[in-house]
Amino acid sequence: MGDCNNASTESAMEEAEEELIAAAQHIVKALESKKYLTEDARKILANLGLQLTKMTSFAESREIEVESNEEHNEIELQLNRISDKIMVWEKDESMIWDCGPDEAFEYLKAVEESRRLTEVLENRSPDSGNDDSTLLRRAHDLLQTGMNRLEDEFRHLLVQNRQPFEPEHMSFRSSEEDSMIEAGSVISSGDDSVDDVAAAAVVHRDSMGRSSVDYVIELVNVDVIPDLKSIANLMFDSNYGRECSQVFVNVQKDALDDCLFILEVEKLSIEEVVKMEWKLLNSKIRSWIRAMKLFVRVYLASEKTLTERIFEDLDSVGSVCFAESSKAAVLQLLNFCEAVAVGPHQPEKLMRILDMYEVLAGVIPDIAGLYSGEAGTCVRTECKDILKRLGECAKATFLEFKNTVASSVSANPFPGGGVHPLTKYVMNYFKTLTDYTKTLDEVLRDEKDENTSQEEDEEEGPTGTQFRSFFDILETNLEVKSSLYKDEALRILFLMNNIHYMAEKVRGSELRIVLGDEWIRKRNWKFQQHAMNYERATWSSILFLLKDEGIQNPGSNSISKTLLKERLQGFYAAFEEVYKNQSGWSIPDGRLRDDLHISTSLKVIQAYRTFVGRHINHISEKHIKYSADDLEDLLLDLFEGSQKSLHGGHRK
Question: The pTM is what?
Fold first, then answer.
């Protein structure tokens, strides 16, 4: 009975639908034949259209609801599948990337799907109901779990695949090969005699790295770079970029600290550096010089390359991460510079300060390239500021050394009248400084010599001006020191030795280029004048005894044997006194000593031969104490620095 009722109902509905379709077709045909409709007809048709729209919207709504329920179910199934893949690793303490590439790929794929589903759910209609909210929370939780795990994996890959940094295998010459002035400053320790080797030791520039080739090394195993890049891209796509960046920055900070430790760069406070003994500080500076070049041109360049490879798809992220991870290490190196710059301005530090200045100036273009973005502004600015402070320190050290030389005071004359330790120290010091002429021109640019015209200064540069001024001060100081000698001849000999030493040091070094040949010619003239003045001071009165004036008998032109005898005895006594004193005097330069021996012999021996030969008939042989050859041999003992005396005659 029920089946019959259902059949009749369906039949009735079909008949009704056919009638509705027929009526609609009739209306359409009627409308085709009508050009104008009455007001009533339009109202009826409008109501009909409204009714049809409502019926269509209702049907579409039912269809969307069905589709939405189907999509919801599909998303839920996907979340369940993704959850299985992600959550299984939460129960396993193993690192995913250690288990092989397939596991890593599947995990990344699962996390990527959770990210995509999260976006889908976030973009669904807010009216989709509580069921979608529940799914969205699940998707967020899964994504959070995945991000936390990827953060750990990212850190693990960076740490476990770090490559050893071995600077000893790189082609940089060790600064330990350089010779150094290790002795304390002659100026600060007084005028006591200093061993020639120590006094003349030259501070050579630390040229290591000057011919070095910058190159990039692999800081992390290249095989894991694509994995690190994939993790970074996914974390940034998932709005977890900050967490990814922070992991990278923290890990690489530790790596950079390890690098500085390997390069023997310690974290030292300014106070520790300022109080440090020079020998230790000198060693630290040498380590810094080598470390700065290696760190910037090799390690930082490699670090920048690594960062760019990992974050190359993420715009400026690489630059920011690089700057954040390396900034502290660079500032540690710069802080040491600052500590050296604020320390006492000791002359022995100048070369090392100039070394540091040159190294920092040399790597600043590299640093500008590495920190080219806004994130690197701090590092670039700090480098320039520290370079300026090093320049100011070098300038202050140079000028303080100049003042120290000017005010150097000796209580006693330098024994033997030789080359004073101050002269040796200053000249060897400046001989080394010529290697820094270009750098000194930069740091001394504002320091003009008061006695030099602007045209001369511009022609020779600040270094030439300052060197001339410094040597003028040294000469003035030597003049003051010479006044301590009671013997005028020894005073002159002292000046001759020191001026000659200065001239020879300039002639035989790059100082000649800085000061010019005219400066050398003037000093040559000076020491030659001193040599002439020495001969005059020592021998004029003695040679007067060998003149004929005053040896005649009173009222007659005949020679007085008595006066002749007295003259010879006076000459021998004076000669022996000169021998006794001046054999202990010193002319360290062999050529200068020989020249003075020859010049003295020409005057003294010739005068003696002439005098004795002219009066040989009036002189008893027993009164001739020395032959001309004896005297000539004795003159060769002068200026040897070992005092001798004559006992008895040496007549031949």
Answer: 0.77
